[in-house]
Amino acid sequence: MALAAFTPTIWAARFLSFLDQANVYSIDTNRNYEGEIKAAGDTVKIPTFTKAITIGTYDEDAAIGNRIDAPEEVAGNSQEMAIDQFRYFNFAVDDVEETQTKPNLMDAAMSRAGVGVSTTVDGYLEGIYDKAFDNTYTEIPGANNNARGTNISARTVTIPVATTVDATGGAFGIKLLEALTVLKRKMSAADVPLSGRWLTVHPDTIEGLERWALTKGSTAVYTPSTTESVLTNGYAGNLLGFRLKVTSSVPSIEITAANDGWRLFAGQGNEAVTYGSQIAKVETYRPERSFSDAVKGLYVYGARNVLPTRLYAIEHKKA
To answer: Which residues are within 8 A (CB) of 301 and not within 5 positions of it... i.e. 6 or more apart?
Structure first.
C-alpha cells in the first residue's frame, strides 16, 4: 500500500521545519547571502569595508560649493564564503505498514533526518565561531600573529576555578559572574550594543551557576528559563543581561599543561558569522528490491566568520 500524494516539495518543507527545531549556534548566525546560493560548490562573495566613513561638520555660512566636502570613495574588498559542505539522507518505509500508520512513520523519519543534519551543522558552526580565537585566521585585524594574539586576548576572560563547586561556597558561580562583568566592560568599551547579547554555555557551566543560584543567587542577576519561556533551542535563562544558550557542542581547549577547559562564545546580534544553506534536491522513489516508499535528499551549506572581532569568550576549567 504505497503512500498517496508522495510529493517531494511537501517532504522538503517538513525537513526544513524539523531542521530549525534543533540548533544553538545558527540562532545567532545571519543568513544575509543565502539567496545567492544555487548549487553545491557555489562561492558567495561578501563585501567588506576597509575604510571608515568620515563624519564632517556642515558649514552653513560657507559658500554653497564649500559647505560639505566632496564625496569619499567607498573602499573595500570581499571575503568568500564557500558552500562546500554536503550532507544527505536516504530512508524508506515498507508497504506492509498500515496505511494510517505509514504517514506518521515518514514524518518521524523526516524528523530524525532534520535533527541529525541540524546537529551536524551546529558542530560545523562551532568550528566557524572558534576561528575568531585562532591567531592565524586572516580576518582578525593585525599585521602579524602577535598583533592578532593581543586582539584575541583582549576579547577573552579566563575563570581560574573549575565547575566542580560545593553547594555552600559556590566558588565557580561567583567567578563566572566576575568574568561576565569583565566581559561586559570589554564589549561596551568596543561599542558593542547592550541589547541582544548572548553567551553559549556548557552543561557543566550551568551546573556551577545553578549550584550558586540555589544558595546565594538573585533573580536580578540570574533568571533561569521556565517551561513557558523555552521558545528557542538551548535557551537556559538570562545572566547579567546575556541570553544563555546551553549546548554540549563547546570547544575543548588547553588552558594550562595540566588543565583542559571549555571555551564559551559571547556576542551580540548575528553579525559576526554568516551562513548559507539550501536543499539541493529531494527525491521520492520506489526502491527496486523492496515494496516501500523512499525519500532521499541532499543538503548543502557553508559559513564564514566575517566579523571575528565581534566575538568574545569566557574560558574555564572542566569539571
So the answer is: 83, 85, 87, 121, 124, 275, 276, 277, 278
